[in-house]
Amino acid sequence: MKDGIRYVPTALTKVPEVTLWFWIVKLLSTAMGEAISDDLVYHINPYVAVGLGAVGLVVSLVLQFAVRRYIAWVYWLLVSMVAIFGTMVADATHIVLGVPYWVSTLTFLAILAVVFTAWAKVEKTLSIHSIFTPRREMFYWATVLSTFALGTAAGDMTAVTLHLGYLASGILFSVLFLLPGVLHFAFRLNGIFAFWFAYVMTRPVGASFADWLSVPHSAGGLNYGKGPVGLVLLCLIVLLVTFLSITRRDVQPDVLAAERREARRRHSRGRARHRRRGQPAREPGREELPGNL
User: Fold this and answer.
1) pTM passes above 0.90
2) Domain range annotation of the chain
């Protein structure tokens, strides 16, 4: 969804263009994060699992901030680690600290509101097309982490606290995920609001369907298991990110244009150097007089 504003960055944008591919990989990453996080926590020491998740998050953050432009596998690696660690944070808030899901949902909603408020106050925009400075990128990833924690808590609240079950919760949040897109294109709902509302909804959509596929029949699921579901989703993400890395269909147009301009400049400089090297050297001080061969 476009917000109607295009920016001319002085550095290359660090996030992908919002296309169908973006939403597909995002939904898969949320589902994968739910399944992998639960599988790790239940099969190894929970504290070790959270520690590994935190290390993975920090390493992927450093890698993302180190690159100078959007690189598909680097970006989606960080999204995947946020999905895993964000699930762990939300689950630990309920399981370890005993905080009810409705309380954690409201808490993470308040945190997200604070991040959005600070971002808008400092940068004057929340547009995904404006992520080309380190400070804006920090706001962006703080928002992403907050949305994952909020979405996890909200999905668990509807499925467990409100007794809707995982399938019904997935359907409910799927409708909420599609709603801002419909309102944006039909009634010109603000593009920035529509994007971030849909972005928040991707988390409970993916998590609810991942739980429905993996939990036992007694819990209302299909009992495929957390590990197998997480592994299949991870393989799908790897395949799609590889496809996007090759085709570059998710690179923002402004970035592609800047890269083409830079490629033309390099080509022109290379041709100029080649022409200079191909010219015969002139003797110092020699004058070109008529008839002087």
Assistant:
1) no
2) 20-261
